[in-house]
Amino acid sequence: MATMFFVVTMALYFAATVSFLIYLLWPSEVLANASLGMTATGFAAHTIALGAGMVGVTDISSPGFHDALSFFSWMLILVFLAVEFRHHLHVLGSFIVPLALLSLVSAAALPEAVPTLTPVFGTLWVHVTLSMLGTVGFAVAFVAGVMYLIQDGLLKSKRFNVLYSKLPALDFLDNLNQRSIVTGFPLLTLGIITGALSAEFSRGSYVNWNPEQVWALVTWVFYFVVLTGRLTVGWRAKRAAYLTIIGFAGVILTLIGVVLKSHGPVS
Amino acid sequence: MHIVVVGLSHKTAPVEIREKLAIPESRMGEALGRLCSYRGVREGVLLSTCNRVEVYAVVDEIESGYGRIQDFLADAHLSLSSEQLTPHLYWHEGDRALSHLFRVASSLDSMIVGESQILGQIKEAFEVALTHKATGIILNKVMKKAISVAKRVRTETKISEMAVSVSYAAVELAKKIFSDLTEKTVLLVGAGEMAKLAARHFIASGVRHVRVTTRSPQHALELANRFGGTAVPFEEFREDMATADIVLVSTGAAHYLVSEDDVQHSVKQRMNRPMFLIDISVPRNIDPAVRHVDNAFLFDIDDLKMRVEQNRGARLNEAEKAERMVVDEVGVVRQWLQSLEVTPTIVALRARIDEIKRTEIDKTMGRLANLSAAERELVEAMASSIVNKLIHNTMVTLKAEVNSSEGAAFVEAARRFFGLGDAAGPTVNGSTSSEPETCHPSQDGIQDAEEVTPRTGSEMPRH
User: Is the ipTM of this complex over 0.90?
Assistant: First the structure.
């Protein structure tokens, strides 16, 4: 049943992505509402798929990478729907839904049975959940950053097109960026700590400096600097947008590292 | 009874004529009284703005009604004869009068389509008419409907969202940089007309902190008082820029007053919080090189004009949507007005009574199975006699009041007493009240006035 709902979700997210992308360039409320409807239905299907998947899994202590990505995509849509509900910001869907679809497709491409670590202790899911929640924060910051740079560019070049009228005010995007990082960073920190603890239990050492762990730490330090810079010396607006886009690239690299390691090419 | 409008607007009459006919607020009561004193004029509302003077009225006969209203307009100004007015007037009745009113209220007939002042002016015209008891059942509903149609047009189309004046375009742009203007600070440099107008628009959009600087400290102080802000010495305004989120520059200076470095410095002091600079001066007062400064957004008068041009086109599209709404709503009101006609009401009443009688007779006859044919006839005759006597007075009154000033109110009352349905009457503000008065004193009219939201700070359009 989980697989069926999973497929339905993917189909709906795909349709929503297409219509949200058309919405970017074509001013139509009907289209926005249709896209929104598909996203919400897809989200419901996804929730069922995740629920059903959880029931099927006997060993909850070893979430696979597939589950993690699927959860990431689910959380992204949840955040989008929450922001949409409060601010009626349809255009955010044009950026977040494709990202969620991408993550779901990656999840589907991975075999379900690739665990992130060989679990010895039952806390691995905590590490995965926390890290993924942190990543969702960074993903939203990334999207806000991209939207910021687009709107900034349109304003600077005085191109008042359809996209300009749909994108929200710059300070709204900058706030969204800040809030996402402020939320995401502590979650990632906890994710890393629980990850290290899990590693200690399963391998006897907190860190063994594999590429994945190095990247995770680099990412953490990077966001720490970004956040500190924002709160102390005014690294906001355009600079914050650039930095969060770079940071998210780092996160993606970490995730790829994890996958590659799980598959074997990197030890 | 017919609803008519006679009037002139910026489309049909030059300002010399319009200003002569304009009715000042102080004389509104007297004018309404005079309008209603004409024979055959039952209800009236006067709309007088700088762009139009219109009389909405309910009259007994269309042609004579037109004549009387035209006389009324000409009487208002001794130097104008009724004939001189003719080429400038338009006359509409029935659906076309309704459609005209709805279009005016929705700002589709305005000089600047989509402007919002006209709705306030219509509300006020209606309130004044209510206060002077010049309206009755028909205009009360029709005016309320006009207000609700205008609101619907404003919420369901984007007709009034798009700036069509240069000074307002600045506010519109600012809203793409700052999502909430209330806590923002505007610095007004110089006292150019357009900049002052823009400052006013910013204040109307919620900006609470205004700082003003001009070369003459005295002038700055005056302006600051007018805007409820603070004056800043002209020599120091560059240092002060960092406190301003929005900088409006419009001076007569022939050179750049604000350089790229000034702005760079301010943005740095602001810890990269975005700055919005508007240069409405010609020649320009802000160095165009400022556009290279990150987080500073500079727009000059040409940019604002371009925005206005773009919006104009978009507004026309929205206006088409609004026109369709007006057509729909006219249909709704037409249906209600038809329900106020006497003949269909009498027919409906007759049918309703016969239906009740039939049902009751059938019910009774079912239980009295062993009556003879003669006895049956007797029972039926009794039923008929009862209902006929019951509605006799209603019928007679309705027929008698057809041509009285209160006819519509009687019809409405009869429809409600006998549950004949309202034929989709417009229930604006949830009110179905049927105050039975017209151009004559009424006590109910005042209550209605309270249902109309008081207009907020609208002023005569400057254009």
Answer: no
